[in-house]
């Protein structure tokens, strides 16, 4: 479903991306509108699927999840049953923050957050015990340079 998004919608979305916890009054004041029209626009954007769930962004390192690995996966399996099991395994693992199917030499890339290298190895051992994988390469992120959830509007 395609929805028309005008400049006011973009301003509201920008405010929500920045801080979804702010009040309707605050958002309305910042975008130059009043509370009711802002609420109606937010409701319309939710119904259209532009706005999904609301969450809080937590600090992984403050919670002891100090290691971020990017995991490159090559598989020789491309059957529907294997893919179903693989995707179910990824969805069941809370360490997997992101998973993408790629074009090119690598089939999948995962973003995995764990406490340390030992925790990554436990994740890896569990993964390969559940699904057959041809090749796995793990890359440890030494420094996070940019991470954002803000979409360019």
Tell me the major beta sheet.
Answer: 4 strands, antiparallel
Percentage of residues assigned to helices: 25-40%
Shape: elongated
Radius of gyration: 20 Å
* Strand-residue proportion: 15-25%
CATH architecture assignment of the largest domain: 2-Layer Sandwich
Distance between the termini: 19 Å
H/E topology pattern? HHHEHEEHE
Mean pLDDT: 95
Query: Domains counted in the coordinates: how many?
Result: 2
Count of DSSP E strands? Answer: 4
> Do you know the CATH topology of the largest domain?
Alpha-Beta Plaits
**Strand line-up of the largest beta sheet:** 2-3-1-4
Query: What is the highest CATH level, the class of the largest domain?
Result: Alpha Beta
- The class by helix and strand makeup works out as alpha+beta
Give the low-confidence spans.
none
SSE blueprint and pairings:
Elements (H helix, E strand, L loop, with lengths): L6 H12 L5 H8 L3 H13 L19 E8 L5 H13 L3 E6 L6 E7 L2 H14 L4 E6 L13
Antiparallel strand pairs: 1-3, 1-4, 2-3
Helix pairs in contact: 1-2, 2-3
């Amino acid at each position: 479903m395609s929805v028309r998004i005008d400049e006011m919608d973009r301003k509201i979305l920008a405010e929500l991306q920045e801080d979804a916890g702010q009040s309707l009054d605050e958002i309305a004041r910042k975008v130059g509108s009043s509370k009711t029209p802002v609420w109606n626009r937010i409701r319309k954007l939710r119904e259209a699927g532009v706005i999904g769930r609301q969450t809080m962004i937590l600090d992984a390192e403050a919670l002891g999840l100090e290691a971020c690995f990017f995991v490159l996966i090559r598989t020789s399996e491309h059957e529907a049953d294997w893919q179903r099991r693989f995707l179910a395994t990824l969805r069941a693992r809370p360490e997997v923050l992101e998973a993408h199917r790629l074009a090119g030499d690598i089939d999948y890339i995962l973003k995995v957050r764990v406490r340390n290298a030992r925790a990554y190895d436990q994740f890896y051992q569990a993964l390969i015990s559940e699904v057959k994988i041809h090749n796995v390469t793990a890359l440890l992120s030494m420094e996070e340079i940019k991470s954002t959830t803000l979409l360019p509007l």
